[in-house]
Design a protein that fits this description.
It is a single chain. The chain has 21 helices and 27 strands. It is of the alpha/beta class. It has three domains: 5-264, Aconitase, domain 3, CATH 3.30.499.10; 268-415, Aconitase, domain 3, CATH 3.30.499.10; 467-637, Alpha-Beta Barrel (Aconitase, domain 4). The strands form six sheets. A seven-stranded mixed barrel has the order 21-22-23-24-27-26-25, surrounded by four helices. Strands 7-6-3-4-5-20 form a six-stranded mixed sheet. The longest helix has 17 residues, at 72-88. It starts with a helix and ends with a helix. Bound molecules: alpha-methylisocitric acid and iron/sulfur cluster. Iron/sulfur cluster (SF4) binds at residues 65, 99, 119, 121, 296-297, 357, 360-361, 377-378.
Length: 644
Amino acid sequence: MGMTIAQKIIRDHLVSGDMTPGSEIALRIDQTLTQDATGTMAYLEFETMGIERVRTELSVAYIDHNTLQCGFENADDHRYIQSVAKKHGIRFSRPGNGICHQVHLERFGVPGKTLIGSDSHTPTGGGIGMLAFGAGGMDVAVAMGGGAYYISMPKMFKVNLTGRLRPFVTAKDVSLEILRILSVKGGVGAIIEWGGEGVRTLSVPERATITNMGTELGATTSIFPSDEITRAFLRAEGREDAWRELSSDPDAVYDKVIDIDLSTLEPLVACPHSPDNVVKVSELKGTKVDQVCIGSCTNSSLMDMLKVAALLKGRTIKPSVSLSISPGSRQVLSMLAERGALTDILSSGARVLECACGPCIGMGFSPNSAGVSLRTFNRNFLGRSGTADAGVYLVSPETAVAAALTGEITDPRLLGDMPEIEMPDSFRLDDSGVLMPASPEEAKAVEVVRGPNIKPFPDSRPVGERIEAELTLKVGDNITTDHIMPAGAKILPYRSNIPHLSQYCFGVCDETFPQRAKAAGESIVVGGDNYGQGSSREHAALVPMYLGVRAVIAKSFARIHVANLINAGILPLTFKNPADYDAVSQGDRLALRDIHAGMDSGTVTLEDLTTGRTFALACDFTERQKAMLKAGGLLAYTARNNEK
Ligand code: MIC
Ligand code: SF4
């Protein structure tokens, strides 16, 4: 039987397991990336493993999230990451060098290689045919130490593209269309391969926009073939030697095939507060807009920015609109400057921000009260922008410009003709923003710098035979890790300080949760479908663990988060009968009995001591996961194995 692109890469990297969908596989990881908001924790975890030098082909530490330095915290964390990277053989991409996914695509990604990153948008690398996964920091630490990455073998979905995008309809609209079709949980358990003749009409940055936003489908990852277009991109990056051709076999079998005719698409928009809440831009015509943000790892390539500059050229934005533009990398920014496009952007009245995540993660540029913000980003979860009552809409750069110029949501096709954008044969190559690690000999003398913001890793608890605790919080469907552990300018600086972070846990849902959880000592959280979607931040598991959460019972879980819960020693269980979700109430006293036998049989019994009712909960742990839970998480499990 023929193979898909992902199956071929998996086969070539398989350490253990068999490739039947749903069964656990372990993969050899060629490259890792971290960003600063998850990186501090990942390197603290890496250090506990006592390994001198990373064992990957390439590991890069990016600073792109916590770039606002309003106190010592972020600056201290940056110095910590810089020194730890230098000591252990990791390249360090300095603040200002760009957003991890954009820079990695430009300078380091290699078709056919595996990459894991402590950021959920790591699948951006699939735009050049990498098999790239978002993962929790602990999994990245283990991979840096040469350990395998464990996932359950995904199903294979194919999106078959035909036709060609019409002017002002973009790769972002393709992403929104697939979200409209599949929803934020439609990709769970699957790798999405983009194929068909329409692929040949899409450039690498367009493909990367699509694989980037595949994360919002809950997909394990997304991937494009590596073809002549990929080759031309790598050539322009001075890295043609990294190219290899990758395609699926003609008789490859897919679990689902979705057809999209690119020529039928229209400009689309995702409405608050979910990326799959998609309608046509024309349907929202006339909605007043207060703020427009262009950038993020989804839409900050040179091609995106050149289009934006060409559309803004000679025009001025509406006085009622505030427009920010964050180019994705130093390469993009310097080429915009060289070509004069930066002047076109500045003359329009836009504010040019640093090459970083910025407003996407609430690091500045929060909207005004009850404001309407149009963003070219990938997530519009409630409160993520930093303004609780703002309405964030996700759009293409073209639609964003149309709103900035008119002050309202406007179909970009009304802007006239789309200017022709020529992509350069070669990009400006300047890796001065990437610091090389010390040689193994020099590394011995490198001192790791730890500021007072870095607090010790919290202790986890082994999962024993019985958990009896209060149901301290019951939440609904599609709870994101932004709900569980919010980010933003005020909180992000404390990513290496779990006790401080804990004050904000579940703040979006219930501000009283941290106090109540602490008072309860131990607790159980109940969630609906797709619990833990969104960011890969392991803090959404570590902080609840610190607050005494011992188990999370949900209708279903998102992939990275469930792995993070197990890594943190929190027991994730699902309702066998989803209707039982309605039968338990916040405040009930719950008991989980004979847990170890239940983990073996696949059914754990839940007794609601308040109502006297019992329910069957499902679990499907591998032997390794059971051992991790019984040890109290991945670090405790690794330490125990090292002692043996
Ligand atoms: C995000 O887009 O939500 C983030 C911030 O990049 C996260 C990582 C984090 O929370 O630090 C992600 O996507 O994993
Ligand atoms: Fe940064 Fe936003 Fe991309 Fe996350 S989604 S990596 S915050 S730009």
